[in-house]
Task: structure prediction
Amino acid sequence: MGSDDMNILKLPSKIINHIKKTRFMKSFKSFDRSSYVDESCEIIGKENIVIGSECSIGSCCEIIAFNSHLGQELHSDLSIGNHVRITSRCRITCAGTLSIGNDVLIAPDVMITDHNHGMDPTYPGGYSPQPLLVGETVVGDGVWLGRGVCVLSNVTIGAHSIIGAHSVVTHDIPEYCMAVGSPAKTIKRYNLKTKQWEKVYDK
Amino acid sequence: MINNLFLLPMKIYTKVRLRSFRKKFLYIGEGTGFGRIGYGDCCNLDGLEYISIGDLSWFGKGTSISVIRKNKIPICEIGNRVKVTARLGLVCVENIQIGNDVLIAPDVMITDENIDNHHPEKWGGRKNGVVIGNGVWIGQRSIILPGVTIGEHSIIGANSVVTHDIPAYCIAAGQPAKIMKKWDFDNLTWVKYRG
Result:
């Protein structure tokens, strides 16, 4: 009986939350109701963002899909798959095509981007007014990014790979690999037959 | 209309507060702004009387600039058109100079505070001041340590730790930051640097 009373008292706030979430979902290109986004997140350019089912995005994340940058028109397309867990303080910026696969686990303080500023040092006014160099970044299914990882533009991380903490991923990483360092290099590879991680020796 | 009337005192109040805030600086140029002063993600500024900032600079949310006077008067000079995206951590006790047109990515830390700033002769006369040249671009989550000079138009890669001087027109990255590429003025391209 007592629990029923509590449920009745909670009903108005539940209805308000439902309406709030529906309004929040409508501003996205596509957003599954089973996903959760923390209130402290900053999401810009929702009309270009697709979020799959059962994702959770933690506190203080910044997810930005640019429409324009200093007059330069951009067509950004950011897609996040199903069962993606993004923890706190991540920064995902998109100006081209950025896709995050299913079942990806992302630790705190991770930065993922798919664009870069122009790199002409003789340009008047420094690097900030230069047009963006837009690329494509793909994070495969089942990838685990460690704490503080930076994923730069034009990078593909293969499915089920692991990136160590504070690595900088500048080149493609193949499937079933463990990569660490700045720039990230493959140190171990998963052997599907023996079901063990095996060391990789550079030649 | 009624809404506007209600907002008017608030607007006047914020304007007065902003003006008194700007007066506390040693110098602050026209058009320089800070992200979200006075709200949740506000900037945190200490020692305003030692800070001078040029025109048209922008400091994103979560910027924390603390200039602390210990024995000497600290110098913190920031140039024109400096763009800080977010969450810059700057600690100055001696001398930090940032040039014009500098671009700073999120989560960068710049400091000139060392073990013993005011007795450098004990540590082999090591200088502690940080100088960042014109048009430098500092990547995400880099750390600039005391006594570092970064030359004009150089690029510091993401997640780097800059422990030594970086010359002009270079790309440096890694922990500690090493020169990766140099600008070739003849062919106008970046060329790999060996040695």
